[in-house]
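debug: dumping io for the single-chain case to check the tokenizer round-trip. Nothing else runs in this session.
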Amino acid sequence: MFSPEGPTLRELAVQALSSVEHGYDLLAPKFDHTPFRTPDAVLDSVAKALDPIGPFEDGLDLCCGTGAGLDVLAGLCRRSVTGVDFSAGMLDVARRRAASAGLAAGAEGPGVAWVRADARALPFTAAFDLVVSFGAFGHFLPRELPGLFTQVHSVLRPGGRFAFPVLAPPRPSSPAFWMLLGFDAVMRVRNALWRPPFVMYYRAFRLGEVLEELTRAGFTVDLHALPEFGQRGDGSPRVRLVSARRGDGVTPPPAA
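debug: decoded output
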């Protein structure tokens, strides 16, 4: 699962015993060599699904990490793309990655900016037409989703989109189900015994609850199958794109 350039077991252990922010600062130089990075196939599929909805002017990659999602935004947005993350280490890697790929401010194509901020307190106001996020929602507890989605709603212009892929949960009969269940159980024990907490739960982000909270935050939500990943045995898609549209200029009240 890890390439030779990836983190050692000791480095992963040190990260897991840190806070989320400091843990990602430590992991940043080797993050792109881990299975935690969103696969290119998912990024390409999301870009393909969003292309007919665009073009967009300004895009935001929420919890951008090392900036893989900026490639998606750069192909969809005409004026600017912004990556926001609260890990300085991840942003440093993202800047270097963007510069080497020619996605620097002033280069041909949309301008690129990087902002260090918490996704639960975004420093923008109705500045974007498209917000995307990849693989970050496990770092938010279910009770934090109303506030998070309200924040995203507030930084979108009327008619703007909030889009992210969602993988179908594995069946109880599959090894992946028990692996994720075990991972979440270990993290809960770790957080009960050790401070600061490291919030990362794979099974806490449930699609039904997510759709309900997006609607409550003021979005109109559509689901699109990403056909590149096929179907499960019951005919349902393995991967969906959630496309949530801000339909008017009214921002809902802050979540309680």
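debug: round-trip ok. The first helix runs from residue 9 to 16.
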